[in-house]
Amino acid sequence: MLAARLARAIARPLPQCRRISSTPCRRSDALFMHRDTPYNNPKIAFEFSSENLKRAQEIIAHYPPQYKKAAVIPLLDLAQRQNKGWTSISVMNYVAKLLEMPPMRVYEVATFYTMFNREPIGENFVQVCTTTPCMLRGSYEILDTVCQHLGGIKPGETTKDGKFTVIEVECQGACSNAPMLVVNDDFYEDLTSATTKKVLDAFTKGEKPKPGPQSGRHTSENSAGLTALASKPYGPGEFCTEEFR
Fold it and tell me: Name one Pfam family in it (predicted).
């Protein structure tokens, strides 16, 4: 009897193990951990210029002394601009020392916010938005135009002459003027392949094209033109009763 039960138990197929996840492990494309390189290591000195140091002190003065670490973002931005557009380990260490805060706290900020570039970039930093509104208006065509017009580079790469770095980004907040891209600090909107090339050619020549819509429209009015606020706005108190003037 016992032998028969054992035989049935052995013959019964084992239950299959339930897998918690079947998706492959993928690493982020963001750089979170520092590794010393010849161009980015703590031995490369960095400090603010006299002009930027004065500006940094003005920024710090906006906060109570016990909360001056709150100035870490504007100071990192100021330092990144001085450091040719990217935030090195020396930049982060310098800001930490200036604000008397642990370097790790500065590293946390610099690795969290995508506005801080952890690797060197070109003279002109081109950010092409491909979020839904821009995508629906042809942003991938704009991205392809940028990459091909700059010598066939891919997003995340820099041209051989060091003049352009191109990346693909999320929403830049100009959805009503899609598709758009940002070059350094300026927005270029309502783009087509032709106008995109004109913008890039101007920067290649060392010029700065006029930011904003490249279609001829003013700000964000609709395709029919300006339909509201077409008349001069009235001044303060203009339609108030006499006792309130």
Answer: 2Fe-2S_thioredx
Q: How far apart are CA 118 and CA 145, in angstroms?
A: 26
> Binding residue per annotation — 17?
no
Question: 132-168: per-residue pLDDT in tens?
Answer: 999 999 999 999 999 999 999 999 999 999 999 999 9
Task: Write the CA distances from 106 to 35, 66, 121, 178, 223, integer angstroms.
Answer: 16, 17, 21, 34, 46
What is the pTM for the complete model shown?
A: 0.77
Is 171 marked within a binding site? yes
129 known member of a binding site: yes
- Examine the fold and report which residue of 112, 146, 164 is the final residue of a domain before the chain moves on: 112
Which of 70, 85, 112 corresponds to the end of one domain? 112
Question: 124-129 and 181-183 as β-strands: parallel, antiparallel, unpaired?
Answer: antiparallel
Residue span of the structural domain in which 56 resides: 50-112
125 with 85: CB under 8 angstroms? Answer: yes
Q: Do 190 and 215 meet the contact criterion of CB atoms below 8 Å apart?
A: yes
Q: Please state, in angstroms and rounded to a whole number, the distance separating the CA atoms of residues 119 and 125.
A: 12
As for how many domains the chain has, the answer is 2
| Residue 233 domain flag | no
